Amino acid sequence: MAALLTLDKLTKTFHLYEAEQTIEACQNISFEVQPGEFVGITGKSGSGKSTILKCIYRTNLASSGSIVYDSAAFGPVEITTLEERKMLHIRRYEIAYISQFLSVLPRQSAKQIVVDSAKDAYEEKSEQEEAAIEMLKHFEIAEHLWNVFPNTFSGGEKLRLNIAAAMVKHPRFLLLDEPTASLDNASKVKVRELIEKLKSEGTTMLGIFHDLEFMEGLCDKEFNMQKGSFV
Ligand SMILES: Nc1ncnc2c1ncn2[C@@H]1O[C@H](COP(=O)(O)OP(=O)(O)O)[C@@H](O)[C@H]1O
Ligand SMILES: [Mg+2]
Question: Quick one: which ligand is closest to 19's CA?
């Protein structure tokens, strides 16, 4: 089976011109993610975990190395040099990036956020509405919260809304950047259940976790990072 994602010697160096300094955020990172797999990366804060995810999603440009993603729309593509138009398509329809932070417009209801996200996947208004409601229910966002602005939501509710908005597009590849970092234990358990569910539905995932305990028995493969390298 062809890998969904193949990293070969990915290296990212930040140049801080003001400080006349360079930061080697990650060096020579190589690994594969197979379709349907859940791959985990652990490591201390500052070890370079998010940098890897951002290079894959291309919110960071790699300094060197290769990132090949086997896309549904275009076949295997080299992310580091892919034309912008195709990258936008992949971000919109194939790869989702979920972090612990909810980044949404302030004056939009929880439901509207998910409906807007569904516009990329469904043409008909009624389908968008239906898909959004299904996701809100699936991720257990209480119905009395649907018409509320989510800035008052708890950490767990925000995260579930975040995931619902990402999942309504049925992405084939999920990047999870410490989704549980700000959550209490009960909410962490919920996220774990959710990840298990996504996995059983065949979603391929690459997740970063600070917390080793949370990863127990969940990952097919696990890498530990220290100072920009896998150890
Ligand atoms: N945009 C940036 N500019 C400069 N340095 C950065 C930038 N992003 C990350 N870094 C640095 O790269 C290193 C790795 O960061 P990061 O990948 O966010 O680590 P982690 O996610 O493991 O906490 C850190 O030293 C961080 O300060
Ligand atoms: Mg990080």
Answer: 1
